[in-house]
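Example 3.2
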Amino acid sequence: MKLTVKEKASYGLGAVGKDMVYMLSASYVLYYYQDILGVSAIAMGVILMAARIFDAFNDPIMGIIVAKTKTKWGKFRPWLMIGTLLNAIVLYFMFAAPPAMSGSGLVAYAAITYIVWGVTYTMMDIPYWSMIPAFTEGGKDRENLSTLARSCAGAGSAIITIITMICVPLLGKGDERVGFQWFTLLIATLFVLFIGITCMNIKEKSTVDVDSPSIKEMFGALLRNDQALIVVISIVLINCSLYITSNLLIYFFKYDIAGDSWNASYVFFNTFGGAVQILSMMIFYPLVRKLINSIQVFYLSVGMAIGGYIILFIMMFANATNVYMLLLPGFFIFAAFGFLTVLTTVFLANTVDYGELKNNRRDESVIFSMQTFVVKLASGVAAMIASVCLTLSRISQDTSAATTGISSVNSNVAILRMTMTILPICGLLIAFLIFMKKYILTDDKLSEINQMLRKQQ
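Structure, written as tokens:
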């Protein structure tokens, strides 16, 4: 039975909510603690990276717990709702550090809340993606829902990109610390509401049974699924490139090119970029997909992103840093990442069928727990790189030192600019080469795999 519009909309709304909270954490936790509260950039980088190492053990275990769960509400929805409620609470406290706290106490507070936030996010993210096979038919129906959900997730991320630095100054009446606290409460509330709608309107099939492998079996299955590993590596490289840019973009506007008017320029650029990203996922991707296959769209997207970064690099060091001029490379970069956001989830879903044929088992929870881990790993690596960049560049806290159209580029600004462009280009090039040489799941190959799986049933 095909999904109703209500079911599709409900599932997509959940994706909007969960990626709103994820992008808020991924893009602003470093800025909140380092720039607003005064925690050292290196300390924050270590915290964010350590949390991701912890997730290496937490995420796969959560996949196993989900697989073993049996309730009258199904395997996935109980964890989805519990994880959402806990994550929303922790998210609020993460951006509501007590004003009296400082020094080592503040560092400890940041570490504890961020690690617990990661655990609770995993608790809801793995069942969210793993439940797709529990209420969809295979083939095109499942691919279409995966594409819709990933597009909605990207829309949630884009919304946060657009509205955060509009709402924070307004809610805090000029005090960013207070503004982030109220803004986070708003986003956390919407998160719970959206996931609640998902849980109410999505019904799992009682016949769906997910195997629960041991940790040894789980990693063995992943290692044997070479296509899943290729996609996972690509996701790490692509998302790391994106998050390096997103973590440093606010510093680029605040301390490099825009001066006292940085917030208006930053909001304008992000609004443009967020709109392009949403359009690329919702409209441009389906149109391009009708003309070329998904692998060709991947190559096109990586090429667009690299081209955008090259243009941005040239503009930066030619002092052509007027915000309106930056819209050109911004268009290519945001559109490319919109496409890639959809594609990586589609590719990962394809590896589940491939793994079933190759290893005689379906490992949705295992595969998608790895997706959760690698996306968070990418954000941790990017945050660490960004923190090192901020430490080395010694960006001034005086925004008046930054002026639009800088006549000369000092070494500190050069470090910031090169980190924002050269490293993402390198990451995207590596992802492109690995994918081109190793990924084999073309449309024809997937059709062949599905035919073979049907014969085995």
